[in-house]
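Quick one: NADH:flavin oxidoreductase/NADH oxidase from Bifidobacterium santillanense, structure tokens please.
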Amino acid sequence: MADQTETSNTNDTANTGDEGIESPSGFDFRGLTISGVAPAAAPVPTDGGGVKGGRKGGRKSAKSSGKGAKSGGKADKTGKDGKAKAGRSAATPAPAFLGTFPDKPGADGPALFEPMTLRGLTIRNRIWLPPMDTYSAFGRDGRPTPFHYQHYVSRALGGFGMIIAEATAVAPEGRISPCDVGLWDDWQIDAWRWIVEDIKAAGAVAAIQLNHAGRKGSTGCFTTGYEGRTVPPEAGGWPTVAPSAIPFGDYATPRELGVDEIHGLVGAFAAAARRAVAAGFQAIEIHAAHGYLISQFLDPLSNERADEYGNGFEGRIRFLLEVVDAIRGEIPGDMPLLVRVSATDWAAGGWDLDQTVALARILREHGVDLVDVSTGGIVSGVTVPVKPDYQVPFSAQVRRRAEVPVTAVGLITKPKQAERVLLKGKADAVEIGRAALRDPYWPLRAADKLGVPSDRVPYAPQYVRGAY
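--- reply ---
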């Protein structure tokens, strides 16, 4: 199904946990027993060593702890008070990674409302709307509709800093459902342009997520029926593709992609990015999470290829790196490029935190400006320990160990809760998902709760009289 990473209400005193990955789960997720999956993959060096395009020279290889909940080992830990524990000299603590903050978060008022700069783009605050599918391209032609205009522009008026438009297919067969939006053809550009123009007119940054669903394509939704199932051809569905002929749960078995087809898909991502620029978007996000095509290549549980696009960590990340390089070559040099990843698939032997950190370091060297950290969606039938902030420790680990800017997402619903994520250095921005579906003006309410001075609150002039 789609990227809907926020659920249910929580109170404002939700426990945010510390940097250990035990915090959200309470158990070592690598120890889960999942029937019918491949044996565990070999450990990956957390420094990404040996991978083409990684950082060069001078880095020592760090050993995987073998405990997904304790990545980095004793020498990598700090206490709650920031003082070094055993394994690191207290006299020489590692410098804090500030990411996109010019100073300590919150030094100049609430961190949520500090501007953020990525390359040549300044975003008015650090409250972002994540990409969430709406299944509302009712013509089944990939073109957004007046619903999308109202949905995105209302949240721009509501004060969000960045609006990331939902998973947008780079090819017709790359849609998650028949009613997904797309940018696989030039005639779709104008359908996006008016939406983008008014998102920007309301003061927000307009970004878009590019995606290919792979084996999770051709699935049902409220507009088509067949929810949770593969849509048959007679109802508008299509055959799916994947790195290997392994189905997701009870979905139809996909066809394994050939190497030439993979090359063609790299070109499709680049062409969609070029169209996004033409439509006026200011940032691009590549969807490499939640079990869609790029994520399927990354994960050893869904990628059993023996060629250059599989057969170990370096091969499994190759498709993503080629997509990153192709898009970076199509968009302006001052345009930010983001990548969304699942930091774990919550399954034994699959994609995990150590591999995510290694990948994040390599992505940074390939011109990626921020990693949007989520989890899951790759393997069906797993148990995910959903609770407030359950994914925040993953973003914190990726940010600290890879030294890349990150976002945090997942049951972040309250202003003070979101503020704490930034103050503790666990992310550079927070994404408010399902809470934003019920409250398009969440940032304006957050500003009131946090005591933001009125001249820093992003009210549209027409709404100032109604300010909190």
